[in-house]
Amino acid sequence: MTPAKPEGIDPKYLKVFYLPPEGSLSRRDLLFGPLTPRYDIVPAVEAEACTAWKGCAQCLTACPQQAIAMDGSAAAIDKAKCIGCGACLPACPVGAIRQPLLDPERLDADLRALLLGGETAPQPRILLLVADGGPPLEGSRSIGSLCLPSIGAVSTWLLLGAFTLGADAIAILPCRAGCRHRCDLARWEQRLSFTREVLARLGIEGDRLLVVRRTEAGRGVRLKAFAETLAARGPHRLRGSSAPKSNGRTPLADLLQHLGALGPAPPAPLCGEGVPFGMVRVQAARCTLCGACPDRCPTGALVLYEDADSSQLLFDHARCLACEACIRICPEGAVEVERRLECSRLGSWAVLAEDEIVRCQRCGTSVAPKRMLRKIQSRLGRAA
């Protein structure tokens, strides 16, 4: 909360409070005195980018304040309920929720300022993420602090990006127990576990990611010992790797594709409930290429492509979040989804089903895929 209106911030991101002046107050001042505005910067939804109209509800389930609801065809954030924890930002699969201080571009710039100090910078380079405010811990000159509103705003992209930009390790100071944001600690623990699994697949030791609890005695001493251990160990293999190119997908997918290509062989696949990616499989013989699943997919992971001769159902692994909307809408029961990450498949489209297009025998106009016509013929035959 700041007393002055932040400059250069769109008003849609500002939450205004009116508080009485500080110091002792008379009854008259309390009732009739001037109120001083205070400002918080909170997220807002870019309605034109939101895919809630397709059934996406990732931000609604991620918000611990229940401050997000549907408003027509898009989600909307109720500023009166929102306290700016930022948990909705990593949850949105299409980047439709923005917050100027927590946008990927801003966070990337903050990380670069902290980590790219050149060869003269203190070693090892440790990033301390401080959630829910509070003073940074005393530990070592090589520790740079980045404050975030809550643990919900700590994303896998932020953690992996810091390692790529030069962090030898990351220490996290989570929210206090019973914090005002009511953070979903189970969701965060799941995200942290997934990040450690990715690091392990990339040959990075999981203990380079340290959680320091606020209730822990001697936190500063532990952090200093952590820095000394890392100094003896030396840098990891990701340090100094170039930044990934944007492929128009999510920043996390672009980063994982980039990291997966650095080694001599692609990392082994990752499966499990905490994996934020999905792998769609289709029983091709049952799929009629009706187009229902691409119409319902909130991220564009499924696309129906047709040319003069064939119809194809295409799948982009990098865009799939395993929401299972395709399973629910498929009239043939032909779709299966597994929570799975394969870095080697993040940069390409896969053909899940394909069929020949049948043309009108008289005029040559495209009619429909052959399996769809057979399905219709079968149903008409049963009706007769």
Description:
- The chain is α+β, with helices and mostly antiparallel strands.
- It has 3 domains: about 10-100, Alpha-Beta Plaits; about 105-235; about 270-384, Alpha-Beta Plaits (2-Layer Sandwich), CATH 3.30.70.20.
- About 25% of the residues lie in helices and about 20% in strands.
- The protein is built from 11 helices and 17 strands.
Count every beta strand, where a strand is a DSSP E run of 2 or more residues: 17
- Binned, the helix content reads 25-40%
Gross morphology is globular
In total, the number of domains comes to 3
Unreliable runs: none
The chain-level mean pLDDT equals 87
Give the N-terminus to C-terminus distance in angstroms.
71 Å
Number of helices: 11
Strand order of the largest sheet: 8-7-9-10
Main sheet? 4 strands, parallel
User: What order do the helices and strands follow?
Assistant: EHEEHEEHEHEEHEHEHHEEHEEHEEEH
Structural class: alpha+beta
Alpha carbon gyration radius: 25 Å
Percent in strands: 15-25%
Condensed summary:
With 384 residues, the chain is an alpha+beta fold.
List the helices and strands and how they pair.
Blueprint: E1 14-19, H1 27-32, E2 36-41, E3 44-45, H2 58-62, E4 68-71, E5 74-77, H3 88-91, E6 97-98, H4 104-115, E7 126-131, E8 143-148, H5 156-165, E9 169-173, H6 185-201, E10 209-211, H7 219-233, H8 251-260, E11 270-271, E12 278-282, H9 292-296, E13 302-306, E14 310-316, H10 325-329, E15 335-341, E16 349-359, E17 366-369, H11 370-383
Parallel strand pairs: 7-8, 7-9, 9-10
Antiparallel strand pairs: 1-2, 3-6, 4-5, 11-15, 12-15, 13-14, 14-16, 16-17
Helix pairs in contact: 4-5, 5-8
